[in-house]
Amino acid sequence: MTGLNSALLKSAALHSGLLVLLALSVEWQDEPQKTELMIQQPVIQAVAIDAAVVEAQQQRIEAQQQAAARAEQQRQAEITRQQQEAKRKRDEAAREKKRKLDEKRKKEAEQKKREEDARKAEEQRKKDESLKKQQEEQARKQREADDKKRREEEQRRKEEQARLEQQRQLEAERRAQEEAVARAARQQFVLTEKEKYTAKIQAAIQSYMIGDNSMYGRSCKVRIRLASTGFVTDFSVIQGDNALCSALKSAVYKVVEFEMPSDPEVNRELRDITLTFSPRQ
């Protein structure tokens, strides 16, 4: 805009200069010619000549002005084009700069995001690893506690089993001792009862024996089988003196039924007995 004003001012000054020169030229030419023209030619002719010159000069000046205006317009258009081109380049450079800056910022943001994601991922990995170690440690401690508890329970079970086994053995020994004592007592009782009833059987047989002094010093061994009621079911001589054995047989059958104990075991012991008789004086 400043350049255009300057050009207009220059053009106006040029036009003014041309007008001044034209005026001086006319004035300078008028002085010598005035007298001559006043003498030789009519005034109308001089005026016509001066008007043609002025017109020609004016046309020349206008042509020069138009050429100068066109040149100025072209110069101004070139200046405007150059300014627009410069502005376009500046704008393009600014856009490129902004694009590069945006791209740089974008890359930096992406890099920052990747770094942040990597940092968060590493933190999460460490947290997960720490949690995993804690869980593994807790699991290990739990396994150790479970193993310890299982061992203690197994130890208690074994101790209890050993105690119960010892108690069972002691109880078994006690029962065995009691049973042994009971069996011994029972055996003694049976033996005593058997001996007692055997003595009764022998006494009953002897009470029915009829003999003489010739039987003294002799002996007879017999086997007697009895029913549970004491009834004689069989009599047999094992060995001995015939006369004595015959007298024994007669005496046994005279008794018919011997006194028998009510105890079943003693009763069974007496159902098959072997007796030896040896009369004494």
TrEMBL record:
UniProt-listed SUPFAM superfamilies: TolA/TonB C-terminal domain
Domain of life: Bacteria
Chain residue ranges for the region called Disordered: 72-171
Biased composition (Basic and acidic residues): 84-171
Biased composition (Low complexity): 72-83
NCBIfam families: tolA_full (TIGR02794)
Name the UniProt record assigns to this protein: Cell envelope integrity protein TolA
Organism: Pseudobowmanella zhangzhouensis
